[in-house]
Amino acid sequence: MPLALLALVIGAFGIGTTEFVIMGVLPQVAAEFGVSIPAAGWLVSGYALGVLIGAPILTVLGTKVSRKKMLLFLMGVFIVGNALSAAAPTFALMLVGRVVASFAHGAFFGIGSVVAAGLVAAEKKASAISLMFMGLTVANIIGVPGGTYVGQAFGWRVTFGVVALLGVIGFLGVALLVPEQRKPEAAKIRTEFAAFGNAQVWLAMAMTVLGYGGVFAAITYIAPMMTEVAGYSPGAVTWLLVLFGIGMFLGNLLGGKFADRALMPMLFVTLSALGVVLLLFTVTAHSQVLAAITLPVIGGLGFATVPPLQKWVLDHASAAPTLASAANIGAFNLGNALAAWLGGVVIAAGFGYTAPNWVGAVLAGSALLLSFLAAFLDRRSRAVETTETTAPVPAQV
């Protein structure tokens, strides 16, 4: 693995930890600030919306400097946001800290995806992207469970303080390992926005919102679901998150490997299976054993969609990939925000802690329908191109 990719993995680990660790300490945060669990879910939605807003803005601003300098700036923003979360005296300031930290997320992964894809041959782009996202999945195996344990043992503020330190390590990794690159041309900004004229880019982002949103509908409220429905102790949530993280790790690797060979079939299979498993989770969540089996499957299927969807965007915005790539990362988090909000709505409506699984299944099924449409449009476009290429040239008189 190139050293530059290792630096991206380190940064992704820190960002992945702060994004997901809130789910493990959500009850503690809600209790300290005196808010309900659905209200505390805004710490997930707020982060996700911050990614959605920050991704395009910071990516465009990043065209003014080298990618390395931009990555260093983003890690600095990440550190400040998490430090603010750790010290926040009120729920409102805690939310502000989450949003500040989230601004770094989309642009980091968007720029990182372009850098990762550029480090390898064309036929290995999805695999390279999956390696960068490996930091995010490893965070769910080590960082998130570890942060949850620290939060339960020493307080959630300590958790976010440790996450800020992870940001410092990520900053140093980028500074030491990512080579300096030339400053992008200013004219490229207009070209980057032109990528959004491609319908396939919008379809990919819509699939991202719905598909990954399906995962977050269930996972956002995993702590109360497992303690109140499955009957686990609060301490057991740490190990359940480890299982979920292992599933994400394996799904990410498999998604990258098979997306290089058969991208759309990979999406068809994973989105179909994800919808079915989320439906089953409404039942298996009532059993400790079955819940423990289902969680890594959800993580694996959910994250197996990440490399193919990111590659689909890069392929269809190949002339201007940076902004489109970052926007798709924002789409992942729009799905997170939508799912966290919808999950909170059905819980607040009195449908119980397993109701978000139904929401997730509907979102995943909708993403599957869009994948069929994207594949159909792609085949039709290729057929038209082939016809135009092979059409006989009229003879000149």
UniProtKB/TrEMBL annotation:
Location of this chain's protein in the cell: Cell membrane
Pfam families xrefs: MFS_1
Higher taxonomy: Bacteria, Bacillati, Actinomycetota, Actinomycetes, Pseudonocardiales
Chain ranges passing through the membrane: 41-61, 73-96, 102-122, 129-150, 156-178, 199-224, 236-255, 262-283, 289-309, 330-352, 358-377
Protein name: MFS transporter
Highest taxon of source: Bacteria
Main localization, broad class: membrane
CDD domains: MFS_NepI_like
Membrane topology recorded in Swiss-Prot or TrEMBL: Multi-pass membrane protein
Transferase listed as a keyword: no
Boundaries of every Major facilitator superfamily (MFS) profile domain copy: 4-382
Keywords: Cell membrane, Membrane, Transmembrane, Transmembrane helix
